[in-house]
Amino acid sequence: MPESKSKFLIPAVGAAVVVVGSILAYTYFKGGPSGGSSDALGSAKVVPSTALIATYITTDPEAWAKLQQFGTPEAQKLVAKGLEDFNKKMFSDSNVSYEKDIKPWAGGVMIAVLPPNPVKPAQLNVPSGAPNVPANLQQEANILIVVGIKNKLSALNFANKLKSQKGVKLQESDYQGQKIVETTQNGKPTYSVVLNNSQLVLAPEKQAIEKAIDTFKGQSSFASKEGASSILKGVDVKNSLAQIYVPDYAGMVQQLVAANPQAKQLPPQTLTQLKQIKSVVAGIGVDDAGVRVKAIANLDPQLNKFQYQSSPGNIIGQFPTNTFALISGNGISRSWETLVEQSKDYPEMKQALEQARGQLKLVNIDLDKDIFGWMNGEFALGAIPSNQGVLASVGFGGALVFDTSDRKTAEATLTKLDTLAKTQQINVANRNIGGKDVTEWQIPRQGALLAHGWLDQNTVFVALGGPIADAISDRKNPSLDTSDTFKAVTGSLQKPNGGYFYLDMDKTKTVPLINSFVSSSADTVTILNSIRGLGFTANSPDKSTSQLEMLLALKPTAK
Fold first, then answer.
1. What is the tens place of the pLDDT at every residue in 359-416?
2. DSSP track, 67-132
3. Is the pLDDT reported for residue 153 higher than 60?
4. Cis peptide before 496 (omega within 30 of 0)
5. Residue 405 in 3-state DSSP?
6. 304 or 247: whose pLDDT is higher?
7. Is the predicted pLDDT of residue 141 greater than 70, yes or no?
8. What's the confidence (pLDDT) of residue 60?
9. Of 32, 34, 295, 307, whose CB has the highest number of CB atoms within 10 Å?
10. DSSP H helices in 482-555
């Protein structure tokens, strides 16, 4: 961060970034001010009802202390150093101390995004002679921050200390009987007001502060907004760190897109899709397994076309225990039918589907029937490590496993694909693996490029690489659902569900594989080594609700 920016943030009473950042840093390492998630409603009562989204950050020391039970010593040192460096930059050239000046009074923090304000003509910096730029196409973010005050005297002492900083210009004005303080340094103002001696409200725009005062005086608030009142109770997560509230999802996206001069206007079809989601609430918490995120989307049942079906999870037992990544679900055929139906409203999507159908017809394959039509049961895609044959250069291969009630069509499709492979001079041969008849597409001196076969009467697999076919077909190996890591990452996720996304970060090869595709610094690798795995799932108890849950499973701190 530039030095001039750093010097500006501290002297301003609206040093919101510093206050919030320091609260999070302190509560993580030492425990800090009390600001539980139940205080979110009080903060929402001074946020204008026009707010698009609000986030409430808890400063309850017990919640943040739970994070201290995770992470390798190297990772904890890295995080500690990063936060220490952050605080040094923020508090440079000032005598402000978080321990003495902020901790005694600061409670929970709500950050709200208001509709963007049009940029003033003077801010556009349009060269002379250039065409006029419509102000409504050039807009800027509008942030409002509400910090709870748990100790009035300490907050007053902090404010007086900031006033004494060098180079700070203070100007006070009255609005609706409330004193607005404008703090300026290097020509950059920040505005703040204390409401009822219990909340410090900060914003980079005076208009946002005035709207907060209007709300405090009785105008409609975020807490009373339609859709917001029901979601402000939050999501039930243990040791909540933050809650995120979006009362009007489609309206938020519309306004944010309209505020971006580079963004195209949303077509009516896209807007209809967005309106399927009425509101969203999400919570982030810490429990004995790691960091957990839960989200609930309230849907419009009249617009929601997706036909949800829970997945039994039995297909996970078809994968070996060393599978390090997996995506599972149910009913690809139904999802395909929904996509085809929706494509009627999207000319570009419909054209792409017709082109794909046409290309496959040239080789006697019906995209709808031969590819997706028989995929009506549970399915899973897994990544399995291997450095043999064609997989030697990448270090892993993959397998798709499908349950189907239409084996006849599936077999016919695989036969068509085998015939097509033969026309490309690929050797197609059979091999017995663990008592199962497997068909392989073989490449000279490299072994099998692809293999497929039936694991039982209703379960078929397609594997990339001969070693992966061996791992899937030979049931002597332990299955993934018996893995301690898989149980730890997915065992506490909600059930029933529609399937899993699973990533095992504890495997010795996983981080190197990630690093081979995305160049990672030593610090990034240190953080990755503190993660045991990532699990994600979703369910829909009815057409009006969709629930998501994610667990970032962390390694416990060595004792």
1. 999 999 999 999 999 999 999 999 999 888 888 888 899 999 999 999 999 999 999 9
2. GGGBS-HHHHHHHHHHHHHHHHHHTTTS---IIIIITTTEEEEEEEEEEEEEPPHHHH-PPTTSPP
3. yes
4. yes
5. coil
6. 247
7. no
8. 78
9. 32
10. 484-490, 510-517, 522-528
**SS3 assignment for 340-391:** HHHHCCCHHHHHHHHHHHHHHHCCCCCHHHHHHHCCCCEEEEEEEECCCHHH
Three-state SS for 41? helix
CA pair distance 139, 366, nearest whole angstrom? 49
Residue 74 has pLDDT above 90, yes or no: no
Going 214 to 217 to 222 to 224, the CA torsion angle's sign is: negative
pTM higher than 0.70 for the full model?
Answer: yes
pLDDT (tens digit, 9 = 90+) per residue, 318-370? 999 999 999 999 999 999 998 898 888 888 899 999 999 999 999 999 999 99
Residue with tokens 């996983």: 510
Q: What are phi and psi of 304, to 5 degrees?
A: -75, 110
**Crossing angle of the two packed helices 73-90 and 16-29, in degrees rounded to 10:** 150
Alpha carbon distance 277, 252 (integer Å): 11
Q: For residue 512, what pLDDT is reported? A: 67
For the chain, percent of residues with pLDDT exceeding 90: 46
CB 317 within 8 A of CB 480: yes
**pLDDT of residue 136 exceeding 70:** no
Helix then strand then coil, in percent of the chain rounded to 5, is 35, 30, 30
For residue 31, what pLDDT band results from cuts at 50, 70 and 90?
very low
Pairing of strands 427-433, 396-403: unpaired
Q: Show the DSSP H helices in 263-331 as ranges.
A: 268-274
The answer to whether 292 and 238 are in contact (CB under 8 A) is: yes
Q: Please give the Cα distance from 443 to 536 (Å, whole number).
A: 37
Tokens standing for residue 544: 């009006």
> At which residue do the structure tokens 């929706």 appear?
342
Instruction: Show the tokens assigned to 509.
Output: 């090869």
Q: Which two tokens stand for residue 305?
A: 């076309």
CA distance 55 to 24: 14
Residue 245, φ and ψ in degrees, nearest 5 = -125, 125
Q: Which one, of 43, 83, 46, lies nearest residue 64 by Cα?
A: 83
Cα distances (Å, whole numbers) of residue 77 to 18, 81, 82: 21, 6, 9
Of 173, 189, 144, the residue nearest 12 (C-alpha): 189
